[in-house]
Write a structure and sequence with these properties.
- The chain is an alpha/beta fold.
- The protein has eleven helices and 17 strands.
- It folds into two domains: 181 residues, Alpha-Beta Complex (Quinone Oxidoreductase, Chain A, domain 1); 136 residues, Rossmann fold (3-Layer(aba) Sandwich), CATH 3.40.50.720.
- The strands form four sheets. Strands 3, 4, 5, 8, 9, 16 and 17 form a seven-stranded mixed sheet that branches.
- Helix 4 crosses helix 5 and helix 5 runs parallel beside helix 6.
């Protein structure tokens, strides 16, 4: 849809306790360094579900804000200082930004912005006036021009939306762990980010062992390249993962996307001596201290983690996608009109789907 004379758009807001509502908002006007993007596809991320499941009290200052942070679309308007972009460009929007000038931002790590209060995800910008940004579950998204990356003509909007957060987060941890062709990698948590990781690992010719509780998601992971899948509820989960590794000595690397302490410990136990573990998932118990120092002292296991992803890896991931003919769009198993936002969240909350996408209102 195009902007109407009354400049009104629809956005999805969280009300608490698994309730969402479509509300009318005044469409924001881009400032000098911003662009207004017409949403063509926006996908629900696991982190969005934390807010969906929260109470109204726990939502605090997010209550009533437009949700969402994974989006691709077409530039509708842009500020006078924006260069390198044009109205009509198809763009993938990176999901967060910082001050743009500190050392971390300059190096491509806006999630680690050194300026207090400057690091912001798309939805957080609505707390300021004028808007610095807005959530993506809406007809239009306003965002700093620096977060927009031109989408190659060969890629559709679903790929562009997933690229901005889930896929690049999966790529970030794989790149940081230095996973190579032939490595055995256990992926704990086969939600959408874990599925993206499975696709990337397959493209890199790694051997993937998936671990999850959900039969539906386990089946999808097998479709996307997991050679074997282990039920996370199995009493012998670790032993099963180890038995599937080369020589039965343990996997070369394990990545946890669940944020569950049990899964994290299983990931650590399933790697070989001098193996590598990547921590990505964030859950309600992730702050607990449950990793024993003996893990490092007796087995030499290297454990690292990331806070989402680095903006500077966007081009590297797109290059991998184009050279290896990789698409993340098949991870989307459910599509809904923005009008049907409540149904979309209900579907994703079953934990049996892949990605769930919201598309423009018809």
């Amino acid at each position: 849809m195009r902007l109407s004379a009354i400049e009104i758009m629809i956005g999805v807001v969280f009300l608490g306790d698994k309730q969402v509502e479509n509300r009318e908002f005044s469409t924001p006007e881009p400032s000098e360094d911003q662009v207004l993007v017409r949403m063509e596809a926006t996908t629900i991320c696991g982190s969005d579900m934390h807010y969906y499941r929260s109470s109204a009290k726990d939502l605090s200052d997010r209550l009533g804000l437009i949700g969402g942070h994974e989006v691709a679309g077409t530039i509708e308007r842009m500020g006078g200082c924006v260069t390198g972009l044009n109205v009509g460009d198809r763009v993938s929007v990176f999901h967060l930004y910082g001050c743009g000038n500190c050392e971390m931002c300059r190096k491509g790590y806006p999630q680690y912005c050194l300026v207090p209060g400057a690091a912001s995800g798309l939805v957080r910008g609505q707390l300021s006036s004028p808007w610095r940004s807005s959530g993506t579950f809406a007809d239009y998204v306003i965002t700093p021009a620096s977060t927009c990356f031109k989408l190659p003509a060969s890629m559709d909007y679903l790929d562009g939306a997933i690229l901005g957060c889930s896929a690049i987060t999966a790529y970030q941890i794989i790149e940081k762990l230095g996973i190579a062709a032939g490595d055995f990698v256990a992926v704990y948590g086969l939600g959408p980010v874990g599925m993206c990781a499975t696709i990337i690992l397959k493209a890199l010719s790694a051997h993937v062992v998936g671990v999850d509780l959900s039969p539906g998601r386990s089946a999808l992971a097998s479709k996307f390249g997991a050679g074997e899948v282990v039920n996370a509820s199995s009493a012998n989960c670790v032993e099963e993962v180890v038995s599937l590794s080369y020589g039965g000595r343990g996997v070369d690397a394990a990545i946890d996307f669940s944020g569950n302490p049990t899964a994290v410990m299983n990931a650590i136990r399933s790697v070989k001596v001098l193996g590598k573990v990547g921590l990505v998932g964030v859950g309600p118990r992730i702050s607990e201290q449950f990793i024993s120092p003996s893990t490092f002292a007796t087995r030499g296991v290297w454990i690292t983690g990331i806070s989402v992803s680095n903006a500077n890896l966007w081009y590297d991931l797109v290059r991998l996608m184009t050279t290896k003919n990789v698409s993340f769009a098949p991870v989307v198993t459910e599509k809904y009109s923005l009008n049907d936002s409540a149904k979309a969240f209900e579907a994703f909350d079953t934990l049996q789907t892949g990605k769930v996408a919201l598309l423009p209102r018809t």
